[in-house]
Amino acid sequence: MQDNRIQKLPVARRADLTEREFAILEAVISSYIATARPVGSRTLSKLPGQSLSPASIRNTMSDLEEKGYLAQPFQSAGRVPTDKAYRLHVDNILLYCRSTPRSAVRALERIAEDPAVQRMLHRAADALGVVTHELGVGLEPVVDEGVLEGVELIRLSSERVMMVLNIGRGLVKTIFIELDSRSDDPGLERLAARLRERLVGLTLKEIRRTAGRRLREAVQDENDPMNVFVQSADNLFELEGDRQLVLGETGRLADQPEFREESRLRTLINLTDRKMLLLETMKRRVGEEGLCISIGSENSASELAGFTVVTDTYRMGDMCGIIGVIGPTRMSYSRIISVVEYSSRLLSQVLDRQ
To answer: Which of 48, 57, 85, 240 is paired with 113 by a 20 to 30 Å CA distance?
Structure first.
């Protein structure tokens, strides 16, 4: 997988473009983002401040097409930007300071109304969908560096118990265990207290590495229910596969012009049904700390070739997760980047206060 993190290069345009080519390309991108229609030379010639003739603009657009920045979807149609053009556009956006629209700030600040991490992440994904009209997406924090703060055991049936782990700042995970019915409720509480004594205060990474030894030292006899935890210690606290992927409402993205055709809409529906694909895509981004933008063909999964994924990491103590949006490559990059960056900062601030 290529590294799609944006490097903030101190350049205003690529060396293979003249000033005129760069200006025309930016005009095509802006027009196409606004209208979702191929852009012609006559349209650009009517823009305020434009002094070039339609013929000169048409020649420049032909040069940009040869260089791979523009494409012509139909004969005699105007041009549309390619992934290469959007990449240049985004690289230049990131050279400048970005402000988040006030309306977006007001909508996003509501995500802090519920202190529970999972529900807060759902609120953030929904709010991003409302603000950007794209598909909001979020990923729970990586729990490896999370510190275990509490353990509870709850009887579900005669032989089934739920272990509730409180991790970090309000993150809750559950593990189901088959446990002998001879352990009554007071016995379960005593067992939970012994687990807390041995494990609370350690990170999940430390617990996975040392739980077997730590719990074995607490075993009192061969009938001790602690033996069940000792025997399964090697994989009992393996919670990486339990991380929750959160998606906003697909309907907002389906309203985009790109999905008015039935075949394109089917592509979108198939994508949102591929939860494991999206989960793996988000998990890979956790290691790419900070803003990450992959455009069309830059995405490692072919199913995402027609989409742009804009994400940023948020922090919860020593843990970090992902928040962002997925949308068509024709998106308002400047606005969406600023909104995603703001949402990640806001999540980090709220979660660090808990």
So the answer is: 240
Average pLDDT over residues 9-38: 83
The residue among 80, 76, 83 whose CA lies nearest residue 38 is 80
User: How many angstroms from the chain centroid is the CA of residue 130?
Assistant: 16
Contact 154, 164 (CB under 8 A): yes
Cα separation values, 93 from 12, 102, 134, 251, Å? 9, 19, 19, 28
pLDDT at 252 > cutoff 80: no
> Is there a contact between 68 and 82 (Cβ–Cβ < 8 Å)?
yes
pLDDT, mean of residues 196-203 = 93
SS (H, E, C) 141-203: CCCCCCEEEEEEEEECCCCEEEEEEEECCCEEEEEEEECCCCCCHHHHHHHHHHHHHHHCCCE
Residue with tokens 């519920």: 114
State yes or no: pLDDT of 180 exceeds 80: no
Query: Do 36 and 257 meet the contact criterion of CB atoms below 8 Å apart?
Result: yes
Q: All domains of the chain, ordered by start, with CATH?
A: 19-93 (1.10.10.10), 102-141+244-353 (3.30.450.40), 148-241 (3.30.390.60)
> Please, are residues 130 and 325 in contact by the beta-carbon 8 Å criterion?
no
Percentage of the chain modeled with pLDDT above 90: 38
The pTM score is 0.81
- Please give the pLDDT value at position 90: 94
For residues 215 and 232, the answer to whether their CB atoms sit within 8 Å is no
